[in-house]
Amino acid sequence: MDLGLKNKVALVTGSSAGIGFTIAEKLAEEGCNLIICGRNSQQLQEAYQSLIQTYPSQQVLSLSADVHQAEDSERLVQESLKKYGRIDILVNNSEGANFTENLIENLSDEDWLTVFQGKLMGYIRLTNLVLPRMKQQQWGRIINIIGTSGKEPSPRLVKSGVVNAALMNFTKSVARQSATSCVLINSINPGIIDTPRHREYLQIYAEKEGTTPDIIRQEIIKSIPMNRIGRSEELANLAVFLASECASYMTGITIPVDGGISASAF
What is the dihedral angle through the alpha carbons of 17, 22, 25, 29, rounded to the nearest 10 degrees? Predict the structure, then answer.
């Protein structure tokens, strides 16, 4: 099936590893030219080398950037437009709150503001930077990767949950504003996906609870109806679909990829 993505330009943030890298791979496989970015220069270089070797016919621009910072986000978009002249697809995919203190009474105003200035403002800012050009060209796709804690609150992820809930609301609001310009904006709620960040989560909470990452992992698996951890490619396949012409009548929605957790919650 032709997904209509050949020679589209896709900017994927947080794409040096994990979910972001897998989404970049799948988009390149469908013929997209890429902009990848991340904060870890070594990981980013490894990702770049992997992409250009696997997909030699596609162009890849690699830029070290922290999309939680306004200057880096502006530079990222400017350099992308300088190389390609347009950005057709934006995948907002960056880390949320850290996995440290989540007890509400121990969180200061500064703790909350740090989270808001990070992932929340990062997604909003990049959307604002690419949206005018997308509207002008009358075609665009924005896909926000937003954790399930925005819909199914977790006591271990209070800060992330608040930010993710705000981003789900933002996705719907901007989708309504942009629909007549053929700019479609959707989000994906990944559940428990096997990524370096998930493994970091297991390690931190195992230490907090005086147990092992494997025991925490087995506890998590018991809560998943499909009885396993998800794979990055399972989420990336949906991202590619939402970026494609196959999803040309879909906007303002949030789709879970979580092994049935949200479907079984009550």
Answer: 180
What is the 8-class DSSP label of residue 109?
Answer: H
Question: At 190, which helix (H) or strand (E)?
Answer: strand 183-190
Question: In DSSP terms, which residues pair with 260 in a beta bridge?
Answer: none
Residue 240 and residue 173 in contact, taking contact as beta carbons nearer than 8 Å: no
Q: Which residues of 5-16 are buried (b: 16+ CB within 10 A; e: fewer)?
A: beebbbbbbbbb
Give the Cα separation of 197 and 19 in Å (integer): 10
**3 state SS of 83:** helix
Walk across the sheet containing 254-257 and list its strands.
60-64, 33-38, 9-12, 89-92, 140-145, 183-190, 254-257
Please state, as a whole number, how many other Cβ atoms lie within 10 Å of the Cβ of residue 156.
14
pLDDT in tens, 143-181: 999 988 777 777 777 888 899 999 999 999 999 999 999
C-alpha angle 123-162-264 in degrees, rounded to nearest 5: 105
| DSSP for residue 179 | G
Token pair 């880096």 is found at 72
2, burial (CB in 10 Å: exposed 0-12, middle 13-18, buried 19+): exposed
The pLDDT tens digits of the residues spanning 8-53 come to 999 999 999 999 999 999 999 999 999 999 999 999 999 999 999 9
Give the dihedral sign, CA 11/250/246/239. Answer: positive
